[in-house]
Amino acid sequence: MIAAGHPVQRPAYARLLVIDADGRATASPRARWLDFLESGDVVVANDAATLPASLAGLHAPSGRPIEARLAAWRSPVGGSNPTFDAIVFGAGDYRTPTEDRPPPPRLETGDALVFGPLGATVMARLEHPRFVRLRFDATAPRFFERLARHGRPVQYAHVMQPLAMWDAWTSIAATPVAFEPPSAGFVIAWRDVASMRARRIGFATITHAGGLSSTGDATLDRRLPLDEWYRLPASTVAAIARARNGGGRVIAVGTTVVRALEHAASRRRGLRQGEGMATQRIDARTRLSTVDAIVTGTHEPGSSHHELLRAFASDAVLAKVAGTLERDAFLTHEFGDSMLVFADARTSAARRPPVTSSDARAQFTQRVASGISATCVRAHGGRAQAA
Question: Which domain holds residue 131?
Fold first, then answer.
């Protein structure tokens, strides 16, 4: 497939390939994606804003240049002395394909790294020369202020012009916790939210700190996705309950939403509001318990995102889809075309027993009582992108 090389979130030419529960494929303009949903469905999207998670700096012991790409939270989100797992490269930048980037100087526990106004310490090596845990010296909110000044969006060589932060933020972006954009959400324009209301389609959000899509190393890529933090609001739990009780379907916008909802549903008390750490892998062995369909980008076989699609459709169907995407020159990567894949009969969540209204009321009451915890971060200024 051809990589989309221009950072335009909702180009007029964007296409959508719809795969129904029987494996039949239908091509459509992507702007018409809501035409394939029904009254009573609920759309769940990831409202995480993207951090400027690429940091150019120096390895203090050697004085050599490095780039660190933050990949996963390993401290309380928004807390003091933020700690992250990170991928570290040697000299260079995104203009060199990730797989061709040189390794960093040898990183040892205790090494100091300097990223402009930010200092960090290597807390641990994570069984690979490029993979380490970093703790930053600054405390929040000073860390986020300095990160906003010095960092830039994680970027890959298929997009040649430098990305601005607003290129990486969806229309519904809220708390900045993600390391790459939840790019399936680029499909959503504000007019779509109004259209959903008119069509009696529900709309709800989760916040999921999606990680890197590629490390440039095959061994590290096999470890993706890493464990990822998420927050599930009670209002979203209630919206899912309403859809299920009314016979509607749960439409996840992006792999991060699938991962968060399925992890939350797998816990002992089932789908409840609160925070969690998605640790599971979703693949052909997974029986979906919550999600009935996914809006996603076009993914190449072998990637972690493609593996997740195996929970929705058989390998035979996905092979035909891959052939269609290749033959018809669909664009891939974050600014590319999209797919809408409905779960087949093997895993369809629609066959679950409904949630009782008393359960939904209890979840909503608990959410109101507990209040809303939010991380207020000043990030890059910039113009808003037209929806």
Answer: 54-150
pLDDT in tens, the chain (387 residues): 788 888 899 999 999 999 999 999 999 999 999 999 999 999 999 999 999 999 999 999 999 999 999 999 999 987 778 999 999 999 999 999 999 999 999 999 999 999 999 999 999 999 999 999 999 998 888 999 999 999 999 999 999 899 999 999 999 999 999 999 999 999 999 999 999 999 999 999 999 999 999 999 999 999 999 999 999 999 999 999 999 999 999 999 999 999 999 999 999 888 999 999 999 999 999 999 999 999 999 988 888 899 999 999 999 999 999 999 999 999 999 999 999 999 997 665 544 544 443 444 444 334 333 332 333 333 334 433 333
Domain count across the chain: 2
One domain for residues 269 and 357: yes
**Which segments of 149-232 are extended strands (E)?**
176-178, 202-208, 228-232
- Residue whose entry in the numeric block shows the structure tokens 């909503």: 364
Nearest Cα neighbor of 118 from 134, 133, 137 is 137
Q: Are residues 123 and 185 in the same domain?
A: no
Considering the domain architecture, whether residues 62 and 186 belong to the same structural domain is answered as no
Residue 150, classified by CB atoms within 10 Å of its CB into exposed (0-12), middle (13-18) or buried (19+), is middle
Retrieve residue 19's tokens: 């795969």
Tokens of residue 45, six digits? 């999207």
